[in-house]
Structure formats: C-alpha cells, structure tokens
C-alpha cells in the first residue's frame, strides 16, 4: 500500500493521500481502501515533493524538472506551472492561510510564491549548497531552510534577510520544523542526529545533538 513514492501528503480530512514518485507521476489514494483513484502525469522529471493546501482543494508538486505544478484536486487538472528555479525542486509547503507557497531547490535558493497571482516574491539566497528542506512558521513571519552545506538559515520574511545561521550538524540537513510559538527549532540530518535549538533567535549558535542514531 502506498509504495514507490518519494514524498507523500495527506488532506486535512485525512481521507485522501497524494504521493509523488521518481516515475514522474503523482498518485491520489483513498486512505480507507488503500486504492489508487487517479494518476496525474505532467512532470518531465521525478516528483520529489508534494503538499496539500490548507483547504484541501489544491495540491502542489515539485520536480526534478525544476518546475512546480499546481493541481485542482476535484478535476485532476494542472492549473498552473510555476517556473523560476534552475535546479531540482526539493521541497514545497503552504503557509497556514494558503496564500503563500514556499519552495526550496538544488539551485541553492528558496522562493516564495503568491498563490493569488502566481508570481514569485524576492528570492532568498545565502546557502552555499543545495537546499534540501524548508519550513514556514505558523504565523508566516519566519522561514527556515536546511542545506547540503550542513547549515540551517532562519529568514525574517518582513525584511527578506537571513537573521540567523545555525551550525552544528556534520552532514546535510534533511528536515527542519518550528514549534507553533516559534521558540524551538528542530532539525534532522544525514549525520543521524536530531538537534533541538531553543535559543536560535538570540544569536548564531552551534547546536549540540540531542538524539543520535536515527
């Protein structure tokens, strides 16, 4: 059940699961039965990341073909193709209000897209290697990105500037997440550790690993 996928996302009602695959397709699954209901195939490269909008009516997909596609769940049609990255898109995620889409890429950048108009706001640049993961705070004010360069960058979206750079992992950063109050930042890495940073907003800090052998 639900095999052969690179990334998965589930709708807010937990009834529909969407998966992206290296075979360039996106599959829509019924959670209760485990059956594939639809297959979407527009990408020309492997699908690396998928995300539901908060309302559950839209799915976005990022691909090795450097594009992001926007899908209408009800019709299965691709309504928009977002272009701008020049490297594989590694992560896509919506803001809590569904108005902004965030994407990270192997081109070392993070882009924010206005879903109402499909335009890209100024690009966040600063990593020296591929961006592997991104996370947006619940209130939409802070963006966090993890990279192959082993660092985590914390971005102030009001200014578009990098407010903090966190170092401490010994390998690529593969996942990042913020607590709801924005006070705790958690990261996972290829070095097999999970780091928990509680004072990341105070200064640039080295994070001691708190959990090993993941």
TrEMBL record:
<keyword id="KW-0677">Repeat</keyword>
<dbReference type="InterPro" id="IPR019775">
    <property type="entry name" value="WD40_repeat_CS"/>
</dbReference>
<dbReference type="InterPro" id="IPR020472">
    <property type="entry name" value="WD40_PAC1"/>
</dbReference>
<feature type="repeat" description="WD">
    <location>
        <begin position="11"/>
        <end position="39"/>
    </location>
</feature>
<dbReference type="InterPro" id="IPR036322">
    <property type="entry name" value="WD40_repeat_dom_sf"/>
</dbReference>
<dbReference type="InterPro" id="IPR015943">
    <property type="entry name" value="WD40/YVTN_repeat-like_dom_sf"/>
</dbReference>
<protein>
    <submittedName>
        <fullName>Similar to prolyl oligopeptidase</fullName>
    </submittedName>
</protein>
<keyword id="KW-0853">WD repeat</keyword>
<feature type="repeat" description="WD">
    <location>
        <begin position="124"/>
        <end position="165"/>
    </location>
</feature>
<feature type="repeat" description="WD">
    <location>
        <begin position="40"/>
        <end position="81"/>
    </location>
</feature>
<feature type="repeat" description="WD">
    <location>
        <begin position="82"/>
        <end position="115"/>
    </location>
</feature>
<feature type="repeat" description="WD">
    <location>
        <begin position="166"/>
        <end position="196"/>
    </location>
</feature>
<dbReference type="InterPro" id="IPR001680">
    <property type="entry name" value="WD40_rpt"/>
</dbReference>
<dbReference type="Pfam" id="PF00400">
    <property type="entry name" value="WD40"/>
</dbReference>
